């Protein structure tokens, strides 16, 4: 165990942690803050749920991910240049959002939210590529450690910084548009940290030449199009075989669907049950933040010690259990002590499952196309949280507001992925050992 802990003693992990914050932070802008704003404006559960379609951008970012691998910005390098540019766009969109009102400018609120999602999803492509490029291909322990640090950073951006808007909404006279000005200021600080990160040194052209040597004689335009848009995806299926590659992708898609349905409606649920904005900030954000950081680091150590398969299986079982605790809150009412217990269990499952999944996907990537191949697989993981979970509001309405039954159904959704995980366990262990 001490050997596993020593893996974290590396300065690269500070940059990975800070980029994790920048990755999680935009989800506040278009997730919980936007949901709370729309709920306070009187929009229905179904309408708020439909705003989750904005997150579909994260499901399709693999379509333009080859450009992030191929095109190099004129400043800060391949990875940092893209990250800095997208952070700047998110900052500008926060300023735009601060000038809108939900009752008169609902279309533009949705449009600006979509632009934030596109910039954030593009930033994620570069951040994931940065993390993978920082760790040697054969350093499995380093990949697990990097995944745990990135997860802790993501939840710091989403949970730690995400508590601030709710405290401001309850304790000050700030309106939700005013709060977007503050969110933009925080993004400006994150842009500064990007300038101080060290760009990973990867000879991507040399790696690409080894893979595409047979095609290098074709015209420059054809070669560029093929190596940019086709080769990254073809290499993944050729290396693993079509059947196994498809199995990996199906599992990645199924694993977090139940959690996605829960997450999309959680803020609406908290408000309907009777929790205040301060309760949401204290427990759903701040407590969840610290729990997630602790279990992200523990999850990284456990993955190093016992392997990714066991980490995924334990996390999946706990995920179903945490959803059932939400069903209990729906029965008992706004008990802060029960909410605290639920948040601790939910934080454990979210952290543990994310660390294991990020490490697993990272190991499947080829360094020549790290951002592209990670985006392909991560987009499937996000698809359940975006495309499918956007119907969560309709699901609650169809159950006539029966929150208990809703959360029980989200727990059941976890079972198919665990069965599939058991079926492909030998292949996962083989990837770890490779």
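-> sequence recovered:
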């Amino acid at each position: 165990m001490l050997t596993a802990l020593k893996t974290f003693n590396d300065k690269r992990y500070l940059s990975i942690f800070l980029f994790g914050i920048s990755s999680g932070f935009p989800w506040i802008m278009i997730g919980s803050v936007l949901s709370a704003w729309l709920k306070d404006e009187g929009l229905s559960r179904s309408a708020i749920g439909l705003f989750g379609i904005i997150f579909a951008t994260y499901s399709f970012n693999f379509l333009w991910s080859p450009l992030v691998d191929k095109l190099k910005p004129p400043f800060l390098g391949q990875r940092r240049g893209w990250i800095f540019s997208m952070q700047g766009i998110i900052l500008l969109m926060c300023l735009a959002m601060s000038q809108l009102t939900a009752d008169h400018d609902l279309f533009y609120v949705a449009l600006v939210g979509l632009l934030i999602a596109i910039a954030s999803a593009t930033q994620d492509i570069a951040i994931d590529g940065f993390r993978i490029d920082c760790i040697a291909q054969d350093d499995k322990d380093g990949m697990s450690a990097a995944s745990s640090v990135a997860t802790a950073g993501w939840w710091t951006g989403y949970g730690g910084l995400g508590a601030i808007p709710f405290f401001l909404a309850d304790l000050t006279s700030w309106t939700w548009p005013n709060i977007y000005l503050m969110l933009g200021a925080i993004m400006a600080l994150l842009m500064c940290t990007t300038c101080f990160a060290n760009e990973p040194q990867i000879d991507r052209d040399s790696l690409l030449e080894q893979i595409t040597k047979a095609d290098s004689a074709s015209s420059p335009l054809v070669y560029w199009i093929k190596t940019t848009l086709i080769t990254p995806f073809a290499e993944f299926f050729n290396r693993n075989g079509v059947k196994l590659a498809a199995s990996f992708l199906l599992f990645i898609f199924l694993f977090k669907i139940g959690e996605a349905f829960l997450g999309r409606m959680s803020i609406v649920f908290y408000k309907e049950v009777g929790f205040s904005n301060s309760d949401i900030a204290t427990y759903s954000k701040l407590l969840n933040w610290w729990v997630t950081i602790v279990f992200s680091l523990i999850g990284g150590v456990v993955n190093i010690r016992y392997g990714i398969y066991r980490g995924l299986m334990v996390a999946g079982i706990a995920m179903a259990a945490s959803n059932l605790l939400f069903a209990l809150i729906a029965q008992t009412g706004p008990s802060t002590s029960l909410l605290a217990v639920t948040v601790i269990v939910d934080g454990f499952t979210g952290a543990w499952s994310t660390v294991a999944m990020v490490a697993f996907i990272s190991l499947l990537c080829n360094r020549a196309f790290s951002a592209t191949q990670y985006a392909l697989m991560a987009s499937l993981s996000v698809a359940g949280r975006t495309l499918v979970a956007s119907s969560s509001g309709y699901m609650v309405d169809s159950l006539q507001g029966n929150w208990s039954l809703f959360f029980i159904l989200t727990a059941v959704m976890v079972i198919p992925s665990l069965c599939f995980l058991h079926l492909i366990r030998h292949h996962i262990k083989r990837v770890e050992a490779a």
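Residues 1-5 have pLDDT under 50 and may be disordered.
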